[in-house]
Amino acid sequence: MMFTISRIDELIMCDKQITDAPTRDFREEYRHRRKDFRLQAANDPKLSFSVFMRQSLEFVEDFSLGLVYQSEDGKRITLVRYNGQHHQSNDPYDLEKPHFQYHIHRATPENLNNGRYEKHPATATPLYASFEEAIEKFLTAIGVRQPDISRYFPEINSLPLFRNLGTS
What we know:
Elements lengths: L4 H9 L2 E5 L6 E3 L2 E10 L2 E13 L6 E8 L5 E8 L19 E4 L2 H5 L8 E3 L6 H11 L4 H7 L16
Antiparallel strand pairs: 1-3, 2-3, 3-4, 4-5, 5-6, 6-7, 7-8
């Protein structure tokens, strides 16, 4: 399959339903907490995905939420990752390398068509400022159906009371 921006967008944003439910609580493992689950496209059960969620126990701003596409030929392709702040070896004020800020890694056609399935360019984002906010934005952006979000992530519905204050 040749990947285009449109195809990548379709895979990321298509409606998805959770098929292998996440555990209620995160489990601790190797200095981080984690949760994983599987999904499939609502309109095409052949399109299979998995989600990983990781958060450092030592530095809570260091986290990663990722959507992985399970291609029909067995490849695991990371399409998008919502990341928190984490250590980097470069200058934290270098906006060209946004790892010191909240940022999103997104697959590109060039990477995927050349067999690079995991490491993608990152862009700083103002969409979230915490792990909890990132989970909400991530699940919505990757097309998880609202009933599944409400069922498996009830804490999202109780995020800040005045989140929409000042918006119309």
